[in-house]
Amino acid sequence: MGILTHDVILKSILNKEIIIDPFDESIVRENGVDLRVGYEYAQYAFSNQIVDPCEIESSSGLFKIVEAKDSRIPIPPNSFVLLTTLEKVKLPDNLVGFCNLRSTLARYGLSMSPTIIDVGFEGNITIEIINTSGNYIVLRPGMRFLHVILATAEGKYSYKGTYLKQKGVTIPKGMKGEC
User: Of the listed 87, 122, 128, 154, which one is catalytic?
Assistant: First the structure.
C-alpha cells in the first residue's frame, strides 16, 4: 500500500481515474485532497431521548436535514452534525481514502470519527463532526474541512453497500436485524 502524492493524484484526476466534481486544483494537497463543506447538514430532530440503533428500522424521523442558511452551519457545544462534502467523489477499485479533519479545525475543538472511503465508492461523503468545545463553532459551505489521504489497495473489489451513490447529507441506516 502506498500513499498518493500531489502529482500522482492530479494526474489521476486529469485522466479521470479519480473523479472529484466539482473539481478545483487547489484542493489537491501534498499527500491527499481537501474536500469542502456542502450546503446541507443533518442534526438530531430532538434531544434527551434514548436512541437504540438496534431497534431502528429507519432513522428518517430521528434527524432533520437543514439547508445552510446565510452560508453558516452552527455546530452547538458538545454536539454533532452530519456534514456532506460539496464534491462528489468516485474512487477506482484499487484506491481507498482515509479521512481526517483538517488539524486547524481540530484546534478549535472539532473532531470526527475515523472514516474510510471504500474502494469503488461513488457519491458525496457524509462525515460526523463533533464539537467538543463549550462554544458554538460555525463552518461555512465551500470551506476546506476534510483531508482525504488516498492509498493503493491490493487486489480489486468494489463497494456495493448502502451508501453507494449517496447524494447530499445521508442519515444513518436503521440497524434493526443486525444486532
Answer: 128
